[in-house]
Amino acid sequence: MTWKGWISALGLLAAAATWLGCAGTGIPKPYVCAADNIGTGDTVMISLLDIIEPVKDQEFVVRTDGTINMLHLGTITAAGRTFGQFERDLQSAYIEKKIFQRVTVVVKPGVRFYTVGGEVRAPDRKVYSGEITVLRAIVSCGDFTDYANRRKVEILRTNGDREIVDCVKARRDPTHDRPICPGDAIFVPRTAL
Asked: In Å, how far are 84, 116, 128, 173 from 153, measured between CA atoms?
């Protein structure tokens, strides 16, 4: 075999080892929160700036049909947009309808929550204040009870996805400690006696 043949064979071997190594590690796929998307039931804080009488942090709750009722604009669809997209949509609407010649719109999320239930010492709905993992969320509710099945903790995502987390493994290896997103629900089942 020529040196070019050896290099090709080594390259294929390295690629196969990498592929098999990644598939066999058991490390869960990264999960990215869709925290920047507005959903039904979300609270949004909207400010209108650079106008004669600025409006600061007016609170709106996104209705079940995905809309809010905006000052001078009427019913506007908010759900499914990112906060940045919704800012641009509102700003464009105010200028196109000649309500304001110039306006700066700021849209921020209001208070958002995640829920922890089941076999934890203090089941509760908690304020989502930034990045948090399933283990930290459980600790924020007093940690597991003595009857908790720590190997089958369920995360129900806002998009309907369901994940089962082995928290025993996650305590040993933080790569298995899954992120929690606004609106997620964690349920810790009881062990079978």
From this structure: 34, 10, 19, 16
Confidence at residue 30, expressed as pLDDT on a 0 to 100 scale:
78
What residues does CATH 3.30.1950.10 cover in the chain?
43-109
Q: Judging by beta carbons within 10 Å of its beta carbon (0-12, 13-18, 19+), is residue 93 exposed, middle or buried?
A: middle
pTM for this structure? Answer: 0.68
Q: What pLDDT is recorded for position 81?
A: 93
What residue ranges of the chain are covered by domains with CATH 3.10.560.10?
A: 111-188
pLDDT in tens, 65-74: 999 999 899 9
How buried is residue 187: exposed, middle or buried, by Cβ count under 10 Å (0-12/13-18/19+)? middle
CATH number corresponding to 43-109: 3.30.1950.10
Higher pLDDT: 18 or 113? It is: 113
Q: Say which DSSP state 164 is in.
A: E
Q: Which of 164, 33, 185, 193 is closest to 120 using CA atoms?
A: 185
**CATH code for the part of the protein at 111-188:** 3.10.560.10
